[in-house]
Amino acid sequence: MRVVSPLLLASVVSGATVAAFDAAGLQGIIERRLPQHAGKISFSSLQGGGDSFVVREGNSSGTVSVSCTSTSACARGLYTYLTEVGGVDIFWTGSRLHELQTPLPKVTSPITGASIVPYRYHFNTVTFGYTTAFWDFDQWSLLLDWLALRGVNLPLAWVGFESVLIPTLKEYGLSDAEIADFMSGPAFLPWNRFGNIQGSWAGPLPTQWVEDQAVLQKQILARMLELGMTPILPAFTGFVPRAMATHYPNASIADGSNWDGFPTVYTNDSFLDPAEPLFAQIQRTFLTKQQEAWGNITHFYTLDQYNENDPLSGDTAYLASVASGTLASLRAVDPAAVWVMQGWLFFAAEAFWTSERIEAYLGAVPEPDAMLVLDLYAEAQPQWNRTDSYYGKPWVWCQLHNLGGSLGLAGNLPHIFEGPVDALHANGSTMVGVGNTMEGQEPGNEIVYGALLDQAWSAAPLNVSDYVLKRATRRYLLKEVSPELEEAWSIIGTTIFSNQDPDTQMTIRSIIDLPPALSGLTNLTGVIPTKIPYDTNATLQPAVKLLWQAQQKTPSLRAAPEFAFDLVEFTRQLLANRFLELYSALVGVQSSAVSTAHDVATAGAPLVALLADLEALLQTNEQYLFSAWVRDATRWAHGNATYAAYLEYEARNQLTLWGPDGQIDDYASKQWAGLVGGYYAVRWQAFVDALVDAKTTGQAFNATDFSGKMLQLGKTFDTQRWGTQPNETWGTKGDSFEVVGSILERWT
Ligand SMILES: *[C@@H]1O[C@H](CO)[C@@H](O)[C@H](O)[C@H]1NC(C)=O
Ligand SMILES: *[C@@H]1O[C@H](CO)[C@@H](O)[C@H](O)[C@H]1NC(C)=O
Ligand SMILES: *[C@@H]1O[C@H](CO)[C@@H](O)[C@H](O)[C@H]1NC(C)=O
Ligand SMILES: *[C@@H]1O[C@H](CO)[C@@H](O)[C@H](O)[C@H]1NC(C)=O
Ligand SMILES: *[C@@H]1O[C@H](CO)[C@@H](O)[C@H](O)[C@H]1NC(C)=O
Ligand SMILES: *[C@@H]1O[C@H](CO)[C@@H](O)[C@H](O)[C@H]1NC(C)=O
Ligand SMILES: *[C@@H]1O[C@H](CO)[C@@H](O)[C@H](O)[C@H]1NC(C)=O
Ligand SMILES: *[C@@H]1O[C@H](CO)[C@@H](O)[C@H](O)[C@H]1NC(C)=O
Ligand SMILES: *[C@@H]1O[C@H](CO)[C@@H](O)[C@H](O)[C@H]1NC(C)=O
Ligand SMILES: *[C@@H]1O[C@H](CO)[C@@H](O)[C@H](O)[C@H]1NC(C)=O
Ligand SMILES: *[C@@H]1O[C@H](CO)[C@@H](O)[C@H](O)[C@H]1NC(C)=O
Ligand SMILES: *[C@@H]1O[C@H](CO)[C@@H](O)[C@H](O)[C@H]1NC(C)=O
Asked: Residue 441: which of 410, 398, 407, 475 has the closest Cα?
């Protein structure tokens, strides 16, 4: 390992278009989240490098003053005051900052803080599909405040990309039909942007969509800037419509690899060689149009060519020419351009990406400040340590943790506190940031993402038990937690969220969401683990019971939205884990030579009963409604029923079949009311029926036949419309506490 000059790293930092200190932007947070305190908290800028803050008592009584070296640091200073002094917090499930007491709590002695890294990053390219695909600006506004307060200063900003790309392609002679042949549907744009897929199996991407997203992007970018963030914007990647090759017969354009078994019509995207002059021309057109559309607001560009795509050649000279052509095209337009790359390829295609090839690819960008690599899955499969700290390129320690936005409590707090600090101090380390790169954001695991961003402001690793308890206190709007709550969170924090098992370092998938089968579902490890790495009966079950007892003793707890959410979330997980036991019992009965059809039916009944209870539980909380996902999608239809049906299909298909014929079915599964009852439970009932049939007829269960039926069932589900039945509701139903009470009686 070599020692890297701090000057080298500092030069990357200067690549940021650090917004001038924006006190008005910071006041915006107060006006939105704690308007009753408007005018009582002031912000001022301090000289100095890096990101640091001081929070003091203000000059007049009942005021607080936050001083900082950057807008982002002031936002973090405000958050530190609100959480540590004010005892309030903001969550993905909602902001509770308005609960801050009046008059403002006093700052008895100044509170200081400083970031240990220049960059705090957030998002994965696919978060824009799995989580925010259908968001409106109100939903963005909550997340952007959440990010700003935690000190994020480098977010990805993909929304509206197509509104720049499409006019660019038109300028090169492509027709509307040729472009439509390339663009994917609204729920699948991230994978089109990655060059994994092309085209849309639901019909062409509507112009209205592209226009609406451009309007949304302007709002998002304006907010990011006023919150002191430097957005990472897209660039031209080289992926082009097929017809580009016809228009430019002499340009080097080749079909890429197949992605996840999609038919060629939807994958094998055409790739224009970055060494071609045409590539540089298109890049110039794209970036110029992007500057016209959003302003000259950043030097950071997200650009991935090999995310689950195989390079055309493994030749190191070829890889070097791709990288140098790509960077040259960016720097020709923006001399300070920084190429930001998701480092997933180095793990996912590790056999291809040998050290030699990585070095050739990254080394072809000799300017040390021209690239920023996201070590995407650093919490479990770090690549910086096998690449000599990315051969000197600055990189960000990222937590991936979630695939597809599926639910499943999991996390490794001790490691996300220690890992980044260790990596920062490793010999020759060129680490410059920490960040979250979850595919989907699910609020049950919000703790681990907040924790990593909090660690960015602490030189020493944070203390897990202390962290978890203080957070629970804020979450439940308490001055201090009761013994029951303390014990519940101490169990959860030190087991489920301190999972050290190297085989299950990812959101644990429940088999409920997977296509039913007699084998191959349980005990999976790796990136889609179904193995539960803790003892449910010794950990989760007592924790749920403790939460239950806590609200029996203190009924006022029920009024805290995050308490109700946690009770539902832990109970959801308990049912999901119980289901695994019931499933194993069913498989045992089925495989016995002496069991009868009646035995199988008896063993199968509890699975179906449990799913009915799960559906009823999820219906009680607004965070678990499939109808909300559908509602969010269809509101973009402007009342056009045809467009609404198209959007609803997109929304359903992503969560279910993910592709026209179940190419990666259930990858983005969700334990949400409406999906559990309307889809997963229907599949499991069909499975139990098929097993009973097999016993009755004395034939073996026919897995091929069953999966064909499941595909049909998925297709039928995907083409339904929510609310076509008069008694389907869009909102919550039932009382969480009643439902949890009866579940605890039945299943513990
Ligand atoms: C760091 O690496 C350099 C160069 O290989 C070496 O000289 C130095 O001893 C190392 N320092 C530590 C603390 O390992
Ligand atoms: C508070 O008073 C000090 C000393 O008079 C002054 O320098 C500072 O600017 C004031 N701060 C604010 C926030 O008004
Ligand atoms: C392609 O190259 C051939 C041979 O050099 C040349 O005759 C032809 O004009 C070129 N076509 C285009 C569209 O540039
Ligand atoms: C698509 O990619 C696969 C490799 O992943 C390749 O075998 C196949 O020939 C490609 N098809 C086309 C039409 O390019
Ligand atoms: C943006 O930067 C380009 C040069 O990269 C310049 O030509 C253009 O005028 C700038 N646009 C704005 C709106 O500042
Ligand atoms: C990098 O670190 C990970 C996690 O600690 C470890 O599993 C892996 O073996 C290390 N790789 C190398 C090349 O040291
Ligand atoms: C962590 O915090 C807990 C609870 O506040 C405390 O009891 C414990 O001593 C702390 N551990 C360390 C290593 O500081
Ligand atoms: C998982 O594997 C363990 C041992 O490897 C076994 O005891 C257990 O029964 C398996 N669980 C399931 C649900 O298959
Ligand atoms: C409704 O949406 C469909 C599908 O996007 C579109 O073809 C049609 O023109 C729209 N109708 C109106 C009246 O806007
Ligand atoms: C299983 O079902 C498939 C599809 O229905 C059928 O083609 C196949 O013959 C069946 N296999 C057996 C062993 O019955
Ligand atoms: C839903 O409505 C239909 C038709 O009105 C009715 O037959 C059915 O019983 C209702 N189902 C429920 C669960 O209320
Ligand atoms: C866990 O507890 C449940 C209910 O209390 C019981 O049915 C089940 O057998 C227990 N599981 C294990 C693995 O002990």
From this structure: 407
DSSP string, 317-380: HHHHHHHHHHHHHHHHH-TT-EEEEETHHHHHTTTTS-HHHHHHHHHT---TTSEEEEETTTTT
176 Cα to the center of ligand 4, angstroms: 26
Task: Determine if ligand 11 sits within 6 Å of the CB of residue 727.
Answer: yes
pLDDT, residue 7, reads 37
pLDDT at position 9 over 60: no
Q: What is the number of other CB atoms lying within 10 angstroms of the CB of residue 261?
A: 11
CA 112 to chain CA mean position, Å: 30
Distance CA(471)–CA(311), nearest Å, equals 45
Q: Which residue has the tokens 């009761």?
A: 482
Start-to-end CA span in the chain (Å) = 54
Quick: pLDDT tens for 437-487.
999 999 999 999 999 999 999 999 999 999 999 999 999 999 999 999 999
Residue 729 has pLDDT above 90, yes or no: no
The fourth-level CATH superfamily of domain 6-114 is Chitobiase/beta-hexosaminidase domain 2-like (3.30.379.10)
Tell me which CATH homologous superfamily contains domain 119-462.
Answer: Glycosidases (3.20.20.80)
CA of 369 to the centre of ligand 1 (A): 23
Mean pLDDT, rounded, for 375-401 = 97
Domains 119-462 and 486-747 share a fold: no
Kindly list the strands in the beta sheet with 253-255, ordered across the sheet, starting from the edge strand earlier in the chain.
239-240, 270-272, 253-255
Return the closest-CA partner of residue 220 out of 310, 299, 318, 143. 143
Q: Whose CA is nearest to atom 14 of ligand 9?
A: 640
* Class of the CATH-defined domain 486-747: mainly alpha
Among 56, 59, 104, which residue has the most ligand 2 atoms within 8 Å of its CB, making it the best to mutate? Answer: 59
Question: Rounded to an integer, what distance in angstroms lies between the CA atom of residue 21 and that of residue 33?
Answer: 21
Ligand 8 center to 532 CA (angstroms): 10
Tell me the pLDDT tens digit for each residue of 83-105: 999 999 999 999 999 999 999 99
Confirm or reject: Cβ of 385 under 6 Å from ligand 6: yes
Contact at 8 Å (CB) between 334 and 236? no
User: What is the distance in A from the centroid of ligand 11 to the CA of 495?
Assistant: 44
Backbone angles phi, psi at 156, to 5 degrees: -80, 150
User: Strand, coil or helix: what is 315?
Assistant: coil
Cα 86 from Cα 99, distance rounded (Å): 9
For the chain, the structural domain boundaries read 6-114, 119-462, 486-747
The pLDDT value recorded for residue 724 is 58
What percent of the chain has a predicted confidence (pLDDT) above 70?
A: 97
| Residue 6, preceding peptide bond in cis (omega within 30° of 0) | no
* Residues 530-576: tens digit of each pLDDT: 999 999 999 999 999 999 999 999 999 999 999 999 999 999 999 99
Which residues have CB under 8 Å from 715's CB, separation 6+? 657
Distance (angstroms) between ligand 9 centre and the Cα of 643 equals 6
Ligand 9 pocket, mutate which of 207, 636, 642 (most atoms under 8 A from CB)? 642
Average pLDDT, the chain: 96
pLDDT digits (tens, 9 = 90+) for 237-269: 999 999 999 999 999 999 999 999 999 999 999
pLDDT digits (tens, 9 = 90+) for 620-650: 999 999 999 999 999 999 999 999 999 999 9
Closest CA to 32 of 118, 142, 139: 142
